[in-house]
Amino acid sequence: MRPGRSSLLSSLVVVAGLTWTSVAKAYRPFDGTDADVADTGDFELELGPVHWYSQGDAHYLLAPATVLNLGLVHRWELVIDFQNYVGIDQPPGEARDRLLDTDVLLKSVLVEGSVQGKGFGPSVAAEFGPLVPNTQGEQGFGASLDVIVSQHWRPLTLHLNNWFELSRGDLQPSWFEGLIIEGNQDEPVRPVSEWFVEHDFGANSTSFSGLVGAIWHARDELDFDVGLREANLSGQRATEVRLGLAWTLGIWDGH
């Protein structure tokens, strides 16, 4: 599930959302992701109809924040991300409406493990592809590569994201290291958290982010999630409130 990858560490986030998938993984609140993909033939819509975001003196609505996932073949999926920023206070020198954080990625499970129910060892996946030009934002193309290692035990699940990006246009490198921690997935409500550090080599700056929250497993196809993210962006605070859903539709028979 993908997380809403909006600005990665550039958010201090309060998260409240809804996830509706065939396996009810509920990764939509996180910026990172897990070492798993959509089942073959499944289309997953992760939609945040309205998010609230502030950074410094600027305030925005993200309407919508969207992640599209399609299971292509066994162990492969297509991921498309975009978010529409609407300025609440007219940002100086910015258009009020901007389509940002746009990318087209492929994700593949390299090693099936505990997350797929294949033994007790870690699962490993890679997500990679181009960052495409934004509308009223960064122009040019960039690139992204995320190597994810997930380990599932009954009381605890960990997802380690090792994320390298080249920024749009000027191709400045950034490195992100993130850890998602989940409680017992067999419980109806489990605590979750995510911790990120980002280093922008071009600006020689480092940012930190942390999320704490919980996921309520309402039924097999439905999860609700809530959390609070704090971020320090090179000394500047940011806040985001997320509301959303994820829905899975079988497009064709994967078998």
Explain this structure.
This protein is mainly beta. It has a single domain (8-250), classed as monomeric porin ompg (Porin, Beta Barrel). The protein has no helices and 15 strands. It has a 15-stranded mixed sheet that branches. A hairpin with a 6-residue loop joins strand 10 and strand 11.
In short:
The chain has 255 residues and is an all-beta fold. The protein is built from no helices and 15 strands.
The CATH topology annotation reads as Porin
Number of domains: 1
Largest sheet: 15 strands, mixed
Q: Taking Cα atoms only, what radius of gyration do you get, to the nearest Å?
A: 17 Å
Proportion of residues in helical segments: under 10%
The number of helical runs is 0
Our measurement of the CA-to-CA distance between the termini, rounded to an integer number of angstroms, reads: 22 Å
